[in-house]
Amino acid sequence: MPMQHVDGENKGKFVLYALSTCGWCKKTRMLLEDLGVEYNYIYVDLEEGEERSNAVEEIKKWNSQLSFPTLIINDERCIVGFDEEGIREAAG
């Protein structure tokens, strides 16, 4: 799965599943960058075939609604939607 990497401070493993056209997804990315967090992301709507289905399967494990943004932290916590307080807390 071709994740895009954004450099920053390593505050754990942050993986963002987003849509390229989603305003809340963009706000989540901007917040992560403002907080200086290193993270990976994928725009699910820009993927095709197996890469897209793999991303969808991964999201479903955490978020059965399959809504965006879905942010997975350290493979143990999931934040669905733009939750500024939750993201700030997770980023320490």
UniProtKB/TrEMBL annotation:
Start and end residues of each GST N-terminal domain: 12-92
Official protein name in the record: Glutaredoxin-like protein
Organism: Methanobacterium congolense
PROSITE patterns hit by this protein: GLUTAREDOXIN_2, GST_NTER
InterPro entries xrefs: Glutaredoxin, Glutathione_S-Trfase_N, Thioredoxin-like_sf
Gene3D superfamilies in the record: Glutaredoxin
Pfam families membership: Glutaredoxin (PF00462)
